[in-house]
Amino acid sequence: MKQFISVDDVPSVPRLVDIALDYKKQPFSDKALGANKTLGMIFLNPSLRTRLSTQVAAKNLGMEVVVFNIDKEGWQLEMNDGAIMNGNTTEHVKEAAAVMGQYFDILAIRTFPGLKDKESDYTEKYINQFIKYAGVPVLSLESATLHPLQSLTDIITMKEQWQQPRRPKVVMTWAPHVKPLPQAVPNSFAQWVNAWGEADFVITHPEGYELDEKFTGNATIEYNQDKALQDADFVYVKNWSSYKDYGKITCTDSSWMVTNDKLKGTNQAKVMHCLPVRRNVVIADEVLDGPQSIVIPEAGNRVWAAQAVLSQILKG
Ligand code: CP
After folding, report:
1. Is 177 a known ligand-binding residue?
2. Which domain holds residue 199?
3. Residue 234 and residue 295 share a domain
4. Which positions ≥6 away from 297 have C-beta within 8 Å?
5. Which single residue of 63, 116, 206, 236 could bond 172 by disulfide (Cβ 3.0 to 4.6 Å)?
6. What distance in angstroms lies between residue 53's CA and the mean position of ligand 1's atoms?
């Protein structure tokens, strides 16, 4: 792999999942692969899981890791080519990315959307500028519209949890939140479930929360959450802000929160969430603390997803 920005960079999703599960069994089997290589991890936004799991994964492969919270510790970056830099920005991404490309063998970046300008967010301006100027492979730690390391983790988790010969029913449900959140996780989850191709896939959300069809593909869209959850094997819970009324919260209906009552019609579904999760707003305590929640092993699998991706980039 030359970069990891979306599922389109992956030659085979099932193969990448198998590589990740092999690393889960033998974390240090490729300890020599990353020797004398350095991963630079650049954060423009906060992170717990992505930051720590990717560092552990890189170390399992023998890599050195440098973490840079560029939003707090770096110069303010200018992202627009041709800009007259007489305002607040101090350093152009042309130099910043190119310089970091001199120091690191792989550059990993987290950059959230502004949620104000749909076109700017959906052209992935930030991460594309780093790709353009870094001169080394770029790995997304979550970009404006996609979170591929999370989605690979989610496929790995479903694959290892599902032991039956029939296809699982996977339902991604919108849930309420107090802040407008990006569409990156649901876009990406939809994209990866479709590329995986081993599940019957339903998406449920209030009207007005439709995601771009380029991600949802042939998934069934069902506006009635109870109907959607019927016979579900996996329930993937996530809030996102409106794509149509871009970046806005247009529904605050708390009845969309996932509770034990909501799960009654499912096939004792396993409940997933990328975390962090706001308890008793998005998912009730009784679910997160109950036997159907797999959010902790799901987060644990972030290491193996990152290790699989790094290994494939190191192998070129
Ligand atoms: N799920 C996820 O990406 O978690 P962090 O934002 O803590 O990295």
Report:
1. yes
2. 151-299
3. yes
4. 157
5. 236
6. 10
